[in-house]
Automatic annotation (TrEMBL):
Residues 69-173 form the Fe2OG dioxygenase domain. Residues 213-237 are annotated as: Disordered. It holds the Pfam family 2OG-FeII_Oxy. The keyword Iron applies. Residues 223-233 have a biased composition (Acidic residues). It comes from Fusarium pseudocircinatum. The lineage of its organism: Eukaryota, Fungi, Dikarya, Ascomycota, Pezizomycotina. Keywords: Iron, Metal-binding, Oxidoreductase. It comes from the Eukaryota. Belongs to the iron/ascorbate-dependent oxidoreductase family. This is Fe2OG dioxygenase domain-containing protein. One of its GO terms (molecular function) is metal ion binding. InterPro entries: IPNS-like_FE2OG_OXY, IPNS-like_sf, Iron_ascorbate_oxido_reductase, Oxoglu/Fe-dep_dioxygenase_dom.
Amino acid sequence: MNNATSDQKFTIDLSPARNGRIPEALREKLAGDGFNDVLDFFEEVNSTYVAQIMSIMHGLIGADLGQVHKTGNLNYRLCDYNTDTADPTSDNGCGAHTDYGTFTIIFQDGTSGLEIEDAEQPGLWVPVPGDATVVLAGWCAVILSGGNIRATRHRVRRTPGVRRLSAVLFVAPDVEATLRPLEDVKVVRPFTKKVMDGQLDVGEFKEVMGKKWRRREGNEKSDDGDDTETQDSEIERFIWA
């Protein structure tokens, strides 16, 4: 509540790897609060929709994304834009950013607030209906597709006094996969030599982006003041020639 410029939300981050490390006694306690239902929900989303979306993207770019999505690099996030933990003067639920991975699926509770930036008119924010389920491409999809897929910049605006909940599934390539345009795609925009020469892997790219999103979320202080608006511009300089 002391940093009105950071994201005004409370989050719980889960993943198949993290879930396996939760002590059984704690899992049993959490089960009474619906924890198993949450895991079942994300597992159903994974088994039902992830392959379908991959197939659609395959059709768009003419290359199989499955070749770099073999290990199931998934993360789940529960977001609570809670009025009790938010700065009452801030309308910033989640600052403007583009996700790092291949794609993100966002499930909302019916409360509006999510906005996406118009790709043709940067700076113009389009509200998303609160009951819509949204699929957004991330930076890894941009690189793997040779620039044929655009990443979607988005943000969440708070309404003072209104609580908002969302559940998010993040899909990313294998951590050790080389992050460069797939062999069969047509590159429509030149990338940096580091990217084209295969000198960048997914894990390193996540680390580069992680410094920015930790600052935006308020989990890490910036050395140069508030730089939340520069997250995407820095990544653009990192990948585009």
